[in-house]
Amino acid sequence: MRSFISCRLFVPTILIVILTFTGCIPQKQLVYFDRKFDSVEVHKSPRAERIIAPYDQLYIKVISIDEKATRIFNDNATLWGQTQVDLVSYNVDSEGNINFPFVGKIYLKGFTTREASMRIESLLANYLPNTAVIVKFVNNQVTILGEVERQGTYTYTDEKINIYKALALAGGISRYGNRKKVVIVRETGGEIIYRYVDLTSKELASG
C-alpha cells in the first residue's frame, strides 16, 4: 500500500510519495533523524527565488514615519482571509500588473519580491518620501494527503517551504509512514523530475 503527500510549493508542482511500513514498526523509525547514517544520493541545487506571475496575490505594506499618509496606501487593498491572520493583498492581473493607490498600474511580472519592493518604493517617492515597502506572496499553499496526522490544504506566507516544515503543518508523518523511502515528483518546465530521499538522512537535513 502506498500513501501520498502532494505539495504545491512556489513555482513547480511537487508530489511527495511516502511508502507505508508493513509489519512491526521499530521505535527508532519513529524519529526523523536516526543516529545511524546510511549514505544516500542527495542532489543539492540552489533554490530558485520565486518570481511574480499573473494571478498571484501579494501582501504589500508601506512603512513611513507619516502613519496617516501610509494608511491611505495600506487600507485601499483587499483582504484575503485564508490565513490565520488576514493579510492585505493585491491581485496580479493577467498582464502582470497590480493596481496600486495613487500610482495606478505597476508592472511586476518577472520581479522577485525584493525587486518589487524597490520598484514600488521608487514610484512612491513622488508621493511619500523615505518609505519602505514590504512585499510577500500570500497564495502559497501546500496540500498534504496520506500517512499524516492531519490531511488538508495549508497556506503559508514564507517565500519557500521545505519538506519538514510542510509535514509539520499536517502534524507530521503517522507511525505507518516509511521515512526512509520517499519519492518526490516535481513538474518543472514541462518535465517530470523524480527524486528519492530519506527523511532520516542528516545530509538531507543539512542540504
Task: Kindly provide the radius of gyration, computed on alpha-carbon positions and rounded to a whole number of angstroms.
Answer: 21 Å
Strand count, sense and barrel status of the largest sheet are: 4 strands, antiparallel
Taking the alpha carbons of the first and last residues, their distance comes to 30 Å
Shape type: elongated
Count the beta strands.
Answer: 12
Proportion in helices: 10-25%
Q: DSSP helix count?
A: 4
Whole-number mean pLDDT: 71
Note down, in words, how this protein is organized:
This protein is α+β, with helices and mostly antiparallel strands and 207 residues long. 16% of the residues lie in helices and 35% in strands. It folds into 2 domains: 2-45 and 140-206, no CATH class; 57-137, wza like fold (2-Layer Sandwich), CATH 3.30.1950.10. The chain contains 4 helices and 12 strands. The chain has a 4-stranded antiparallel β-sheet, with no helix packed on it. Strands 4-5-3-8 form a 4-stranded antiparallel β-sheet. It is elongated, with a radius of gyration of 21 Å. The chain has helices at 67-75, 113-124, 163-169, 202-206, and strands spanning 2-8, 13-20, 57-63, 78-80, 87-91, 97-100, 104-107, 132-137, 140-144, 152-156, 177-188, 191-197.
Question: Keywords for this structure?
Answer:
single chain, 207 residues, alpha+beta, wza like fold, 2 domains, four-stranded antiparallel β-sheet, 12 strands, elongated, disordered N terminus
